[in-house]
Amino acid sequence: MFPFTEFGPFDRTERKALLVAFLFCAVFVGLLSVSAPAKRARKKPLTIVDTPLHTAQYEPPPPVTTPLEKFRLAPEVFWNFDFMNFSYGSYKTSDGKSYALNIRQGLLNGETEWFEVKDVFYKDLTGDGIAEAIVRLWHVQCDDSCNGTNLFYIYTLRHGKLTNLWRYETGTYAYGCGLKSLMLGDKQMVMELFGRCSTQAMVSPGPAKFLVEDATFTVFEFDGHRFLTKSARYIIEPIRNVQHWEPVILIE
To answer: What are 191's strand-pairing partners?
Structure first.
């Protein structure tokens, strides 16, 4: 018969057996808690944040500028004039014919020739503190081959109206007196042409087309009303091929 199967007052033997059983259970529970592996802490899930990589933002290089760029900005007094759509007056050809030089969208096309606005600069050339407009046209004529001249107009504003101070056409690169360079200063201009050139649009031929020797420096000065030729000087230079020459424009 097992102890404690009947309830009632505990005798000394039963109390002793109960105490032994209690101690045995306590020791067993203690040993079990010590021998059992420690409960692992539950790890929190790893959260990966997709952080964008910060890289240096690409910036395009600044536009290439030339010393002439500031002279291409039209001052306010010229805002009402569009030289890309402009009537430059009557033009007389080498064979004596005349026609109106009306440029539209920078061009005037003919059967065997055309005009194109190459550049417009603004610079005070008369010393009155107000800029003038310097327009450069490219005039191309074609026969068995095409060659061109440079045509210049200088305009000033007087009483709100445009006044032409100077008109000049160079010779051609094919037959001589083509434009080599032009320098614009205060009340003075210096033009350099290929060949020996005493008048505008003249011919100073070399041994073959586009082969030209020597050069001419012509100085123009403002006399208070217009630009006049002050001097011309010839410089000895070897023959060169000027077929693809790009004229140099300098503004002081």
So the answer is: 182, 218
Q: What is the pTM of this model?
A: 0.74
Rounded (5°) CA angle 87-191-237:
135
> pLDDT tens, 119-129?
999 999 999 99
Q: Does the CA dihedral 173-167-97-104 come out positive or negative?
A: positive
Contacts of 110 (CB under 8 A, 6+ apart): none
Q: Of 101, 235, 120, whose CA–CA distance to 184 is shortest? A: 120
SS3 233: strand
Structure-block tokens of residue 29: 């529970």
Asked if residue 85 lies in contact with residue 79, where contact means CB atoms within 8 angstroms, the answer is no
Residue 160: CB atoms within 10 Å? 7
Task: Please write down the long-range contacts of 126-132, taking CB distance under 8 Å and 24 or more positions apart.
Answer: 126/156, 126/165, 126/187, 126/222, 127/186, 127/187, 127/222, 130/77, 130/156, 130/157, 131/75, 131/77, 131/78, 132/156, 132/165
